[in-house]
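Figure 3 (text version): structure tokens given as input.
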């Protein structure tokens, strides 16, 4: 029997034994500190983080249900984001920051069934759309909220649900060849899920559905290519006009509801372009992507993302990384007009640029298996203030210093998850 005073080796052996029996336990902590030293709406610093714990249950091993599994994860968010409190930018300086609700939350809660020799994978339950679509693993080696786990434009303006704020959904992936797949699903849009504890499974507050579609081509340890799009029937509002058809920035009032669905497309790819012959774990990966809205009633109309990650910069540090990312955002005409009018009403002057550039450079220090410490520097040229429109300030270029700390129980003790992306 287990004792209360377990050594790390006892705990690791216990977790690996459970995994062999069909129970894979997961626990992760992400903590991100950011200080805005200049620019933005104002300067300040915040610390934000998330702890999650859950399990993947192999129902084949546990109950003889061939190809079946069950996944669940409970989350605890804490802190507040720098963009929420100080900078006001559309992009986040801490990607882990989801919302202002700091409470325990049941997120992922889903049944998975694999069929046709595992070529067909169906997941149903409480899901996050962002766990399956428009994501590259390479992009999550950064703190800035430009591309982890999906591009910021899609995260904010596509009607996607993101964990921990899961909603009802069904997701289907069919592997057309060993390296290609087609994936689609239907996801509830429910704005009340973010503020809840995740235990209210009612759909009475649902406002529509989002239907994503993605084609993927991937060769592990070599490259990924993803082409996709989405349609969301949930209502969304006009950035500029109020219900009376006048400038909301100058005259206030309630935002006018758009009279059509949200639609968008995206393309993402990454590629290993160099690998050390003596130590293949040391390699250089480039990545890029573009996402574009197909309607005008948004804050950002387009995002272009690119970057590079060098893994193993030194032979003595084969797991460490050096990363650089860059994003170009195109502010929509209506959002620019709204911000300009809001600034004028607040007694300020000046116009936001239609082009915003966001950069990050970082060093990922892999302290030990499952523990990563990542200091980073972020710089934004022509930052918007969409999160804080009622200000006379025209934001100057921003310089932000960050520190990202990640701890993974599974990687620490050599236990891999079976599924249930989160």
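Below: residues designed for each position.
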């Amino acid at each position: 029997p287990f004792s209360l005073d377990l050594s790390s080796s006892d705990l690791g052996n216990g977790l690996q034994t459970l995994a062999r029996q069909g129970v894979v336990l997961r626990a992760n902590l992400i903590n991100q500190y950011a200080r805005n030293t200049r620019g933005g709406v104002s300067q300040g610093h915040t610390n934000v983080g998330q702890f999650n714990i859950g399990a993947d249950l192999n129902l084949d091993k546990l109950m003889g249900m061939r190809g079946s599994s069950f996944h669940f994860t409970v989350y605890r968010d804490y802190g507040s984001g720098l963009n929420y409190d100080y900078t006001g930018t559309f992009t986040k300086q801490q990607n882990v920051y989801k919302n202002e609700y700091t409470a325990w939350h049941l997120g992922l809660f889903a049944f998975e069934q694999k069929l046709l020799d595992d070529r067909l994978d169906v997941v149903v339950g409480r899901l996050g759309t962002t766990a399956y679509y428009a994501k590259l693993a390479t992009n999550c080696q950064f703190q800035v909220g430009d591309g982890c786990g999906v591009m910021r434009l899609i995260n904010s303006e596509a009607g996607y649900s993101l964990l921990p704020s899961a909603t009802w959904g069904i997701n289907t992936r069919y592997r057309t060849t060993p390296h290609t797949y087609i994936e689609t699903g239907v996801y509830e849009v429910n704005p009340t899920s973010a503020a809840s504890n995740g235990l209210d499974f009612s759909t009475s507050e649902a406002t529509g559905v989002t239907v994503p579609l993605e084609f993927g081509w991937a060769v592990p340890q070599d490259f990924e290519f993803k082409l996709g799009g989405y349609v969301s029937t949930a209502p969304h509002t006009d950035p500029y006009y109020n219900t009376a058809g006048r400038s909301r920035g100058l005259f206030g009032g309630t935002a006018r509801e758009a009279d059509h669905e949200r639609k968008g497309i995206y393309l993402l790819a990454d590629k290993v372009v160099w690998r050390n012959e003596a130590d293949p774990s040391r390699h250089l990966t480039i990545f890029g992507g573009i996402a574009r809205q197909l309607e005008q009633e948004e804050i950002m109309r387009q995002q272009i993302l690119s970057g590079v990650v060098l893994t193993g910069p030194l032979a003595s540090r084969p797991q460490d990384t050096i990363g650089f990312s860059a994003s170009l955002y195109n502010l929509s005409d209506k959002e620019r007009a709204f911000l300009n009018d809001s600034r004028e009403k607040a007694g300020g002057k000046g116009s936001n640029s239609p082009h915003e550039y966001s950069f990050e450079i970082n060093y990922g220090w892999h302290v030990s298996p499952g523990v990563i410490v990542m200091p980073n520097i972020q710089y934004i040229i022509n930052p918007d203030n969409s999160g804080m429109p009622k200000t006379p300030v025209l934001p100057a270029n921003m310089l932000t210093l960050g520190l990202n700390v990640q701890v993974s129980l599974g990687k620490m003790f050599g236990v891999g998850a079976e599924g249930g992306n989160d």
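The chain has seven helices and 18 strands.
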